[in-house]
Amino acid sequence: MSKKPFSKVSRTMLAASMALSVLAAPITWKDVVNAEESIKFVDVKQSHWANKVIHELANEGLVAGIGGNKFGPELELTRAQFIVIVTRALDLPATEEETPFTDVPAWAARDIANAYAAGLVKGTSETKLDPNKVLTREEMITMLVRAYEHHLGTKIQSTETPNYKDMNQVSSWAKEVVSVAVEHGLINGKSATTLAPKDNTVRAEGAAVIHNLLKSSLVSVQLLGINDFHGQINTYKKVENKMAGGAEFLAAYLRQHEAENPDNTLKISAGDSVGASAPASALLQDEPTIEILNTLGFNVSTLGNHEFDEGVDEMLRLIFGGEHEVTGDFGGADFPYIAANVIEDETGEPLLDPYVIYKVGGVDVGFIGVVTTETPSIVIPSGVEGVSFTDEVEAINKYTAELKEQGVKSIVVVSHNPAESNTDGTNARGEVIDMANTIDDEVDVIYAGHNHKYTNTVVDNKLIVQSFSSGTAFSDIDLLINKKTGDIVKKSAEVINTFHEGIEPDAEIKAMVDAAYDQVKDKLNEVVGTAAVEITRDLNANGESLMGNLIADSMIAQTGTDLAFMNPGGVRASINQGEITWEELFTVQPFGNDLVTMELTGQQVIDLLNQQWATGTAKILQVSGLTFSYSETVTDGKVTGEVKEVKLKDGSPIDVDATYTATVNNFMATGGDGYTVLTSGANPVVNITDLDALINYVKAQETVEPKIEGRITKVTE
User: Where are the domains of the chain?
Assistant: First the structure.
């Protein structure tokens, strides 16, 4: 990969700026690309120390000659001439302000005014610029470093002193900037051992400095990131009352932004690319989602908890390819998955590579992957059989040290761990925010995920980003990397919604989505019933929802038990009023969890309800066959609660000593979401899937109209 240019200045303007002695009509970029022969200055011999630099810039349209096919490499460079170069190289905005200088030449007045407004120019006195004064090398270096810092938007401090033997000749006011310029590769010595700070500067040196500034000092890298896509290849959502999402719109945005820096863009996924997917992806084992990411040229992904939904073997098949009884042979992902903290029990080694290194514009950028250690508690046990999850920070620091040993200093962590912030970066909170302070400071960027929130903040000088979920947004991270040191010297991010208005969907990806949908559309379009009202999954203030009640009732209708409990995280969508299709019900319950019946004592039911806060957050169960009330408190961000009263459907109190039959899904039955009481339920029996039970219930009812019935009540103490 080659690097992105240092600035977005037009090449024509730069060509004009380099006509140092004679500001005549420059050689433009158009002239150069249409030239039949390369430019060759007769006064820049093959043996000249700047021959390659001058001719490379000339043939790229960045410098012009002085007439007569000459460059004038040894002509001296004045203050005004160099200010013009820097101003146009940085493409500084025009200003209406005037400078206080009374000796500014007309040909350079506007450029000098722009540079002065940007804080790059100082006079030799309050009213004098002394524009025709020839620059010494240390004066040129000072202007150069000001320009460099202006572009970075930050003050640069040197970390080392150059070892030129004449550093004692550098003026006291120039020592720091000279050190910065040498350390960042902006300037070379006059010889291998001398800097010659007091020597006058010539045109060849000006060309060399511009060459260093534009081509050697910085690499601009763009990272385009998504998280929690969840295979939502053909689903749209309203964001800010505007439609967003869908693979074809996400693709259009990603390709549009990639075009801004095509050689130096990497595309990242922070986990949960698949799982809880739209049926057009899920019914085809999520292969369509991986194929779309392949086509878009994704470069790296970490694992999310949902990658484990169907077990480690199926996850590895999606990554590396292989046969499936439903879909046949699949080629796998064209990009690496990385996970530093997922350990194979049999070998004690990481299941996947812990990191990957990409060379971007000649600079190594390392990516370390981690996934939340909560994964075993939110995935069925068979999903994580054979692997263990270690502490994220310990894994990150271990492999950061390994990357540093290889000389990699630009390091990005791709985590599937939660974070959140206000849109201005304030009020940052969540696991990744806490992790940032103990993660090695060589890490510059951390992707967050899992909780589907907005995050764009800086903690401990680490940029932390998350862009909602389901393809409704993506993050655009811009990095400037010092090519000499390998360090990231500037970083910024923007989270961008994939609004449909104002952009054309990507035709190639739309065709892939349509092809996947066509394979399953007959099943998806089957009408199974009617919704008399919109059935929303949104919880009311007490924690009850229409969809939760409908699902819990369908569980009892299927199994005939006394009670039913549904985890709220498994309720994935709402249904509009009107006809209900198979696809809509699949979107509500996409996991294919089996229903499990068991026997619980009344005390176990109460204990189960008290485990709704076991993970430090409120996960209020959707219920059928009983009602309950509870109180809740929040302390330092941790939610605790207590069940106050539990009654059966007839209004009688639950008997702690009696035995009741209950239905849950297999995720809950094995202790998922912290409901560990269910692992002690007696006589567990597996029934049909939760989706099939819901479909059967809607078909039997023909028209469904769930209501908020006061099954759950939050009380204030």
Answer: 11-217, 219-515, 525-714
Is residue 174 within 8 Å of 118, Cβ to Cβ? Answer: no
Give every CB contact of residue 461 below 8 A, 6+ residues apart in sequence: 441, 444
Residue 12: pLDDT band with limits 50, 70, 90: very low
How far is residue 351 from each of residues 168, 309, 338, 340, 347, measured CA to CA in Å? Answer: 56, 16, 9, 8, 9
Range list of H helices, 239-390? 247-258, 279-282, 287-295, 312-320, 375-378
Contact status, residue 180 vs residue 142, Cβ threshold 8 Å: no
Fold classification of 525-714 is 5'-nucleotidase;  domain 2 (3.90.780)
**Start-to-end C-alpha separation, the chain:** 63
Tokens 């201005």 locate to: 424
The rounded distance, in Å, linking the Cα atoms of 481 and 255 is 23
Question: What is the SS3 assignment for 587-627?
Answer: HHCCCCCEEEEEEEEHHHHHHHHHHHHCCCCCCCCEEECEE
Cβ neighbours around 25 below 10 Å, total: 11
Q: Which CATH number fits domain 219-515: 3.40.50.2300, 3.30.565.10, 3.60.21.10, 3.40.109.10?
A: 3.60.21.10
pLDDT band at 217 (very low <50, low <70, confident <90, very high): low
pLDDT > 90: percent of the chain = 75
Q: Decide: helix, strand or coil at residue 527.
A: strand
Contact yes or no for 267/299 (Cβ under 8 A): yes
Average pLDDT of the chain, as a whole number: 90
Largest Cα–Cα distance in the chain?
Answer: 105
What's phi and psi for 240, nearest 5 deg? 55, 40
Q: Which residues contact 230 (CB under 8 A, 6 or more apart)?
A: 272, 273, 274, 275, 276, 277, 278, 306, 469, 470
